[in-house]
């Protein structure tokens, strides 16, 4: 496998239509980014129409917010709304040249999603996964053409966080890598090419921080003491606020993946799984401001 230097930009394939699999929060956030920055048709899909509609509502709501803040013109708003489309019919992906997924973080689910999508897309379409920490090589295990699969990992909130990790799996070919780098630049993100290793670069470090924070709670330090102690450290968010931002289930999954890969270096947290089922750590007011700790969450710990 070649070293992960800058790929030849001339090999990048044009992206004239984007397909997005999954209409959850992460997928909806980057659907907006793709339509806004590439100005091409963007089709989002999910298991059922209700999920698709929820994603579309979020995107249209964000377009309305951009309009009300004066960040886009009424013409631009109309154009973006016309370019974004939702469906449960994957046949609409047949002329997409970039298809990216953000479905549930489970290897088998992602493998099946790509095996199915490969039946619909053209031979030249590039496939991308937004996995947080799974192996891109394994995600592509059921693909006939794994050389066209690349990791393309966004951070939450997508509109604000400047980084995309472009994961160079062993099979990824240079044209795919080049398309990913050129696409990231068009999205106005800073892209780094990473190895296909658990957590890539950022989540490997983040898993350490979040895992240590949960371990401190697991072993008897209260959420409140931890949160108050870490708040003045100049972090934009404490580890627990960050866990809520990325989603407690996603956070638990990231920690589990790291524990499985490096059991001597990463903790697994029973409490985090309990919290993930419960859904939250903090109480918040109607505007999302933290008002205290959720009593049931504290009881779980
Ligand atoms: N969507 C769109 N825009 C958002 C947003 C969202 N969800 N959340 C905040 N913003 C925007 C606001 O609109 C505002 O923009 P403006 O100044 O142009 O109006 C700007 O961000 C700042 O927001 P606020 O003033 O409301 O709040 P803060 O200054 O506290 O910033 C934050 C909020 C940017 C989320 C900041 O707390 C932060 O950077 N937190 C850390 C986030 C982080 O580390 N993310 C990585 C998580 S790891 C991950 O995603 C990987 C995964 O695989 C696990």
From TrEMBL:
Transmembrane segments: none
Chain ranges of the 3-hydroxyacyl-CoA dehydrogenase NAD binding domain: 17-196
Signal sequence segment: none
Domain 3-hydroxyacyl-CoA dehydrogenase C-terminal: 199-288
Protein name: 3-hydroxyacyl-CoA dehydrogenase NAD-binding domain-containing protein
Similarity remark: In the central section; belongs to the 3-hydroxyacyl-CoA dehydrogenase family.
Highest rank taxon of the organism: Bacteria
Taxonomic lineage of the native organism: Bacteria, Bacillati, Actinomycetota, Actinomycetes, Micrococcales
